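With this grant's support, we have settled on a layout for protein records. One resulting record is reproduced below.
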Amino acid sequence: MSSVVERLFARDASLWPEGNVSPNRLGWLDVAERMRSEAAELQAWAASVDAAHIVLLGMGGSSLGPEVLRATLNDQRLTVLDTTDPETIASIDPADTLFLVSSKSGGTLEVKTLFAYFWDRVGEDGSRFVAVTDPDTALDELAVDAGFSRVFRNPPDIGGRYSVLSYFGMVPAALLGLDVEQLCTRAIEVDREAAAELGVAMGQAALEGRDKVNIVVPEDYASFGLWVEQLIAESTGKQGKGCIPVPSTEVEGGDDRHVVALELSDVYDLGEQFQRWEIATAIAGHVLGIDPFDEPNVTESKNNTNDVLDSLPLREVETFDGEVDEWLRANVGPGDYVSVQAYLPYGQEDSLEHLRRGLRDGLGGAAVTAGYGPRFLHSTGQLHKGGPNSVVALQLVRRTPAPSVPIPGYPYDFNTLISAQALGDHRSLVSHQRRVLRLAVDDVKEVR
């Protein structure tokens, strides 16, 4: 095992198939050391921010790590806004708020539209904005031209889902009042050998048919499942292979399960877990023989959304009007899993978890995951299209549109955007011969 760890930390690209993108994606291996050296300066800057509220505008890798930290602390000052749902967006009060615009590429559609909306709401005041992005992106240039109060330029050799220990995670951590040095120290001191063994076991289990990774997280750290689910799914779900993460606060048995129980005693343990799972996931990719650093089907879904938006008005797809349980029982077989994809307002987490467990139990213990759209398009969406054809997707869309929330400078509103994302993803799933049921509801509790 030590030789594999040594090769990983020596940045040996031959660990993965020829042509992999690892040569410019391994900066996460030592970024915690850089962040630890900058911890005091980061925290001094964060202490100088006197805004009553902070809203992070981001998607995928730039948002899920911060959301784990926020939720674990139950912090009410920071809001992680990673949705295009108009009702959720309209609920944000921009008064006395600092906006953290976070995007690796600097061109993510969701972040661009969210920025356009709030830029207009605050009267184009750059002092109310901070950017986290790679150097020389469109966001970097915009932030300079618009007079943002600060621009954090991240090391460009780190992919989004591996970026939690970089500025993308540590800037929000500092704003949350966390000790950044301690968080990074826990990451640096991770047992690398044990992390690699975790990755080997996860990859081998998937090859043997136990490809559902039941990650059992303590109740107080349940939000960790959001981040680790993205990391594993987007990294390994390709070429018809993949480890299918099923985070839960309880053990879920089954012949297709590989169970990993986590022990966390304080928020700083998350630093160790972030680095542990990044190492494990990279090694699982080695075992599976895939590139754990690319995301080909994420780009596909983005392109489909753009195609829908380029041919407005929207062409509606028929929704199901029958018994969901009956349809699922007819379509879910041994080894399959159900993915509940809710293009609905935030604030329904408890209902989604209740639905997930209810579907699981009603299907005799089948693996079921649940998440919000379009959030999952930048994470588990890669697995749904590129991984094993064992997914059965339950797409939940609004029955009654929310009041229009226009996007300044764009020819459509947020209602249209989130609808286009759902339609684009539906098109992607169908093109990959995935089983998908589209259901129109106004509330998760309506699903029966």
About this structure: DSSP finds 17 helices and twelve strands in the chain.
